[in-house]
Amino acid sequence: MKLDTLKHGFDLTSMPADSLADYWNPEVTEALKQQNWAQTDIREKIDLTAWQGFTADLPRDPYVNQRWKRMSWLALNDQGDVEAMGQCPMAQGGAFNDAESMADRLRYYDPLTREFMARPDVKAFVRAWARLWNIAAREPILMQITGVRGEGSIDPLQGQGIHADGCKALSILVLNRENVEGAENHLYGDKAGTQSLVDITMDPGDILHLRDDRLFHSVDGIEQLDSEAPFERFIIIINSRFVDDFQNRMLRRHFPEAVLNETR
Predict the structure, then answer these.
(1) Under a CB-based contact definition with an 8 Å cutoff, are residues 76 and 134 in contact?
(2) Alpha-carbon distances, residue 40 vs 113, 151, 221, 235 (angstroms)
(3) Which fold has domain 26-254?
(4) pTM for the structure as a whole
């Protein structure tokens, strides 16, 4: 279900957090309630070209071939401002990640740059995202810029297949999609993929919200359209309220005062 964003005659990114209640079309909240997923776009909310520029200096992923990535743990403080929490590894248990190169491993990445996190439209996006999911102060939010580039073809999930990310709140924003064929997103009601819900090909600026503890997702392989030019596809993944005990143990170890979604 593709939802149109609201048009505004003013700049939301420069306004206080309480003005972000209408950042999302009201139909987004209703769709999440009714079907556990919603698609919309935020092209009028952010400077997409500026955000795309931050993909140029991403470090190579040391754990996954042909992938580049930065990630940071963020949280809202008691005043509703976005703050970096510091370093904590990404930790996905095998129950949520089937890829041999990633499952049950601690993975460390360089943080999102200060220049990116200082942008008013980035801060507004994180605050509005937290409001959408009712994320409270001191709840860890994981935000990543990640993607693939190269020639030929590639599996952007690197073996994960149909999977869940081990959280309750998950959103995927496409930053760029250049010389790419494929990369269609699929949502399912079961991990076996017998309950297909929707197939979506997202363009830059499109964002997909899903209740990750109720749905499963995958994305098709990427094919190079023009053999004379490399392909690349980069996305932002933002999620919170982890149901993965492995990740929660690492969060408690690194952020003792954090508010976690304790599963036991």
Answers:
(1) no
(2) 26, 30, 23, 15
(3) Jelly Rolls (2.60.120)
(4) 0.88
